[in-house]
Specification:
By secondary structure, the protein is an alpha/beta fold. It has one domain: 3-Layer(aba) Sandwich (Rossmann fold). The protein is built from seven helices and five strands; from the N terminus they run E-H-E-H-E-H-E-H-E-H-H-H. The protein has a five-stranded parallel sheet with strand order 2-1-3-4-5, with helices on both faces. Helix 5 runs antiparallel to helix 6. The longest helix is centred in the last third of the chain and has 16 residues. The two termini are 29 Å apart.
Length: 162
């Protein structure tokens, strides 16, 4: 089974205020049925009028956390994508807000693998953050330092699959 099979034909909303990011993600996810939005208002309208299976939400430029609330209500699997909101607190906020994953933009090239992890975990009734932790722990340690989980020890102690 090819690694992109789970993504084939999935309806995906990509929300980012940077045209090059929208273009790159659309190319990386060309096996999906992609809809792009470049503003909070446009994304909100699309979420309220169409059905999506997955949403990739930029945190900063398009009020990603507000969009996360909407996707969670609509039962759309949401992934947070960011270049600037790169802190352990943002990882925790994404998780607490109902996101299935948190992806730094510098890891965007692996988006298809991340989304496949999420779909596979959902199919198997597993927590989507299990795959995240195994894939992203070394990135977080490099970026935030080896004590990166100290900022919210209580959260990280309860974090799935720690």
């Amino acid at each position: 089974m090819g690694k992109d099979n789970l993504l084939l034909g999935k309806k995906v909303l990509i929300v980012d205020d940077e045209p090059d990011v929208l273009e790159t993600l659309s190319e990386l996810l060309d096996m999906c049925d992609i809809t792009e939005a470049s503003s909070f208002e446009e994304a909100k309208e699309l979420l309220e009028t169409q059905h999506f299976e997955l949403a990739i939400l930029d945190i900063m430029g398009v009020s990603g956390y507000e969009l996360l609330e909407i996707t969670t209500q609509k039962k759309v699997v949401a992934v947070m994508l960011t270049a600037y909101a790169l802190t352990p607190e943002d990882v925790a906020k994404s998780h607490k807000g109902g996101a299935a994953y948190y992806i730094p933009k510098e890891e965007m090239v692996n988006i298809a693998s991340f989304l496949n992890d999420i779909l596979k975990a959902n199919e198997e009734g597993k927590n989507t953050w299990e795959g995240w932790f195994s894939r992203m722990a070394s990135f977080c340690e490099k970026r935030f330092g080896k004590d990166w989980q100290k900022s919210d020890e209580e959260f990280w102690e309860r974090f799935p699959f720690h």
